[in-house]
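User: Could you walk me through two proteins back to back? I'd like the raw sequence and the structure tokens for each, with a short line separating them so I can tell where one ends and the next begins.

Assistant: Of course. Protein one, sequence then structure:
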Amino acid sequence: MPLLESGAMPVDFRLIDPDETSNWLASLRASFHATWLVEPLAEDVRTLWDYDRVWAATEGDTIVGTARSWATELTVPGGAFLPGTAIAAVSVLPTHRRRGVMRGLMTSDIAAARERGEVVGVLWASQAPIYGRFGFGPATRVATWTVDVGPGVVPGDTRPGALTLTPVSTEARDLVKDLYERWRTRQPGEIRRREFVWDVELGLRVRLRGDDPWSGTLVIHRDAAGEPDGYVRYHLEERWERRQGRGVLHVDELHALTDEAYRDLWRLVCGMEWASSVRAEQRSPHERLPWLVSDGRTAQPESVTDGLWLALIDLPRALEARTYQSDGRLVVGVASADGALERVEVDASTDGATCRPTDAPADVVVPATALAAAFLGDVSLRVATVGGGADEHRPGALALLDRLLRTLDAPWCSTYF
């Protein structure tokens, strides 16, 4: 891996050995000002991590920066899956910041992902200004929804037998995983989850970093034929006022394959006793909830913010994989933050698209971070380029590319990592 001259000693960027896990975690802990215990976590993660993707920046024998990743898949408009690298735990010791350490870590992982044939990079950004330098743009958004609850909040009746209170078990885990997998194939912006995550989410495994295991209620929805088609996980934050239950019901996760399942699951949580409100975090800002409740004003999104950040590592494959709602042909120049320019010819139609590298002059040049942000259709490309600018060489080219990238189904990623 390349070396970086940083202070008195050069910094090397390399993969770690499993026996360096404790030192790696200690560096991450110091960078994040965390309080979790290193050794128990190190013992746990050694069985979970892919050490071909655990990076360290080292200065002599000291780990001064960390990053790691794992293989995932991203659902794009039209339902195709793109292989990608999910990047997390990017950190630099306070004593080594602003010396290029993070750049070395990020470029090392992205270069390795490109060699593996991965098409996209995804991450959740702890600090928004950082990752545009590496071509990442905020491609989905998330919101917290709150609803005042009570009988009749979601009008109508739920079919008898549609909802089943389900004890948590390995069988229930497999059922929920299967429902999620079927759901994510139709949701642009969603990603594949790692196997152990399902045990953590359902409380079958203690959370990493020593947090208390999840403890809540799981309900499965079934269609008229008895086949599972949705689920909800929730827990109650108990509160009492004048001997009246005024708790907050937290919706930890809710996914449905049909409109009926979506209505019934929300009807369940919005009519729960002992609660005066429902709070659902990590949801889509485009939730249909206001159209379900009797008074749409009682269901409102708050704390709308960026969700999954996306980088297009293999630009031609990414643009060719997704579907388009209109037809158009143009040469797109994509400018990286370091001044490099990649040009691709895009020929898109409602029947499919082809995309190939080209040396032809670009009809429009856009920043890589803006194209990544608009790729899934959550934001207009013309909005995403208002800050970084777009260089249009053919009249109407920016409007054409903006129109091509728009989608009917808003993207959403419910999977935080």
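----
Protein two, same layout:
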Amino acid sequence: CDETNLVLKAARAFAAATGWAGCAKFHLEKRIPMGAGLGGGSSDAAAALKALNHLAGPRFAPGAEALSQLAAQVGSDCPLFLCDAAVVVRGRGDRVDPLPADAAARLHGRRVLVFKPSFGIATPWAYARLAAEAPASYLPLARAESRVADWASNRTDPVENLLFNNLEPVAFAKFVALPVLLAQLQAGFALQPRMSGSGSACFALLNDDSDVPAITAAIRAAWGNAAFVVTTRLTSGA
């Protein structure tokens, strides 16, 4: 309940930016594991900003650039969670642009398996290691933009061919349980699993015939029964 809690940080930032003198009581029930690279804390902060903006009047119109800028002060990826659409995020996370409608439609409804070992990975550590290996650790901007544009324009290209995470080598070098399992899932179940953000959670887009119980059993055999495993679907707000 100190300043490391992004909900409280968001509330204080909102009050400072708007001058709102009202009060709010927060009850936070965590469903997204910490240290997972899934944006759990950032999405909590964005939800707090939305709620406070509603309670206060609102002070910002829905989708207002000022609210997004305020979210970016709280955390680099917070503006993402103010959106209700499939998006491309640029800059340090403060530039959020919607995907073209036809490209977003190719993501909608896809089943996803999200799985995380019992340990987490500290985001500051992962990004510090990434920066220490720059520029070799970064995908050049022009190449990244080209990959996104090519995928968005090619309606038959599955999203699996687009996925890339340059934080994987950083995390995999220390946490070898991650690449070992991902290689097993790729070989045994024809999946293309990736790590999410700075980890330690990973995900795999599922095929229509994917044997989820068998995949789950393989994950627990590798990472133990404490592993977090959940199946979900991408929606328009993915």
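The chain has nine helices and six strands.

Let me know if you want the two compared in more detail.
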